[in-house]
Amino acid sequence: MHRLAAAAPAAALLVVTAVWGSTFIVLKDTLNYVAATDFLAVRFTLAALIMVCATAPRLRQLSGGQWGRGVLLGAVYGLAQILQTVGLKTTDAAVSGFITGMYVVLTPLLLFLIARTPMSRTALTASVMALVGLGVLSLRGFAFSGGAAITFGGSLVYALHIVLLGALSRDQDAAALTATQMIGIAGICSLSALPGGVAIPSTARVWGPLLYMVLASGIATMFLQTWAQARMSSTRAAVIMTCEPVFAALFATIIGHEPVTPRLVLGGSLIVGAMLMAELGARPSWRYCEADP
């Protein structure tokens, strides 16, 4: 039972990455019918409203500090979403995915710079292996552009969110923290869409994927990530979350009937190997030291 309980956070993050990976096939062509900033604003506003209604009694019990920390975490995550979306406009999707996934090495770097948390050799090896696998899986050439620089900024902010969530989610009500984060995300995404006005989607082509993104890729994944990161180190979480492009490729192969390529097999194997190294080869001190009070 103890082993199952210890494995549960990693399993939860794998579910998160699987849902994130599914969004690529779900969102295919959707953004041709709605602006990305409008989509983000509507998506996270609906998610915030649902979470507030579902957790109202718990939210009333939160202190001002708990509210502030949750909204701050959400604002950080929302900023990362915006930077990634803006950068994607002038960056190849594969390059964008690789740069975004650089949070796997940026997370332990931020932990060292902010909290002076040392990284074990196992953690370093797993992080680099995951990044190499991501490159093999994604890249077919690399041209650094302004959009790539913006995307890198988004990756840095994603890493910051992972670090902050790992530090601030201890002893917190996961549902209430998810709700306050959603409020922060909705606020900053709505602000980014305001200059041109927020357009509500008017076609079923958009509402189907939108509702999936609200419920599965919004509320469910944020809750699971919040719950899981309270029970594992931020570096370990970052390594596991690099499985997202592996799931994206699997969904594209199974549902989109895309071919299985050597790049997919090699890159995916490296990422999965890095995750297994982080899970099975890490010392107990690396697994839990960052979550200790």
Explain the overall architecture:
By secondary structure, this protein is mainly α. It has 14 helices and no strands. It has helices spanning 2-26, 36-54, 56-60, 64-88, 93-100, 103-115, 121-138, 146-168, 174-193, 204-229, 234-241, 244-254, 262-280, 284-288. Helix 4 crosses helix 9, helix 6 (103-115) packs across helix 8 and helix 6 runs antiparallel to helix 11. Residues 282-293 have low confidence and may be disordered.
Please render the helix and strand layout as text.
Blueprint: H1 2-26, H2 36-54, H3 56-60, H4 64-88, H5 93-100, H6 103-115, H7 121-138, H8 146-168, H9 174-193, H10 204-229, H11 234-241, H12 244-254, H13 262-280, H14 284-288
Helix pairs in contact: 1-10, 1-12, 2-9, 2-10, 4-8, 4-9, 5-7, 5-8, 6-8, 6-11, 7-11, 7-13, 8-11, 9-10
